[in-house]
Write a structure and sequence with these properties.
Length: about 190
Amino acid sequence: MVCHQGGKHGAWDHWWPASGAGRPEDALSGASYCHGGGWWDGPRETTGFIVQQSGHWVFDGTGLARGDALGADTWPPLPGYECDGVPVDHIGSDGIATLSAWRDEAGTQDGYQLLAACPLDRRWQELPPRERHGAGEGIHVAAMGMFRHGGTVFSAGTTDWAQVLGDARDRRVDRITRNVLDRLSRA
């Protein structure tokens, strides 16, 4: 794997160039920071992760239904100071997101399942440029998802998952983590 972090202009110049390995980070994890964003200064206000597929085994035992929010009322908010996302074309008034028809151009794998999404609004301090969009343009989300490609990948899409989990701030985060560990340890 080839990684590069932190160019002389911050996040604006450290994406994986076509002249590099030729494999976008989305191909590894299903998601990328360029479709998410960052909020480092001051308290973050978010809707939390809006559940997209409540019937998925990841959510077993959580009591979460489609459209419910996860991690909106934790401190820090579950959508962390840096979030990875996926290309999304639309988010309905109910919080349900539609994956972009051009997601493959960004490297998001076929079969990627968007399990939950947190819209990142214009208050986020960094909404990076990406395919088909300049900085701050288009829809940016923190994405919780899963896909299989030579193995199974679960991506929480947030830097603060471990902090919320470690401090037992939301038992549903504990349950999701246990579900993932139990299922993938049997695989």
